[in-house]
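thought: fold this chain, then report.
action: predict
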Amino acid sequence: MMERRDLLKAGGLAALGLGALGGAAPGAAAPACTPFAPPRDLTERLRAAAARPVLRTDRLGSDPVIIASIDVLRRDGQYLIRVRDRDGAEGWTLTNSEQFPAVYPLIGLKLAPVFIGRDARDLEALQAEAYLHDSNYKWQGLALWECMARLELALLDLLGKRTGLPMNRLLGDPVRGSTGVYFANGDRARSAEWVVERLQRDVAKSGAKAVKFKLGARMAETEASTARDRKLIPLMRQAFGPDMVLYADANGSFGVESAIAVGRLLEEHGYAFFEEPVPFDHLAETKQVADALRIPIAGGEQDPSLWSLEWQLAADAIQIVQPDLIYFGGLIRSMRVARMAEVLGRKCVPHISGRGLGSLYVTHFASLLPNTTDYQEYKGDPDPVPYEVTGKGRRFVAVDGRLPVPEGPGLGITFDPDYLASLEPVPV
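observation:
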């Protein structure tokens, strides 16, 4: 079992942490407390790491790549984004259709006015400008950042095709050529036995050496969910044996006392991290749980704020940071979080939806991280859109528990051209 690194104590910062604050159920007001204030020198180190440029502009050539159009297209409930430059080159990306239909108008209303007619090589500066343009910062959250992330991915695909480089090479120098996977199961409605059997099937198919499953009732706790959790936690270890890496995700289901009790059960059975034990925006309670347990606390999936994640890392409220590559605003912004975690010796294990080529983006991103784990989130290949890994003639799926980083230009995949030609534009 992984042990938490008590880095703040080692650095003499424990006296600035939060003490025991008492329990709180989901939805309850946070107890009064003395807030953790990171020392100024620590904040400066974290912000300096986050502020370094991510996009490798030295690899983008000397010719401008002027963005001519940004389009959202659709077929059979699937949404794609296409960007074109003035020379006719294109970049594409597939979206997560679960969330995207509710937010895509922001691409035309809030982002396109900044990006159209500008040089795609200035992507980082354009993102910063778009955040402030027309008070767009008031939209901070999933709505704005998902649109920014999808636009970023399409532009990275375009830049990759213009330079002949895969997406990860546009953002840095890879430290690994493949990533391991953990197979994630999101079911809460079925029995503990059903979850175990389904993950056994998925592990047999993918070769995954790690798995993750859900606890609680998603931002709630019931008698039924508690009974299921207490059965499922030991049953998973019994079913998969001592060598399987096990993760558990509560999606903010517990209050402090319940989370600590569940965390100790996870520790007893050798689990490797406990994700979102209390509601994600209950920062004081998250730290209380972390302080009470040895198991690493993971979080960050829901958080849109770079400064919130900075605080949680500095306060040792989370030991594994999980920016969602889409909901947080893209690979560039997520890289800033990973760099802050690296300063503190913490791990960054990005979160991603299973749809919209999520595992593809995670693999590119994780290939650049010296401070990640051996396993990245994976839910198979659920997208119905026809594509193949460029030059390989196959889909992007795990083999023997690993995903090779695509080496083709841009995203490293090629969508079926007949399928792309059949897409209908969506007004933005």
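thought: worth noting. The longest strand covers residues 67-75.
final: tokens above.
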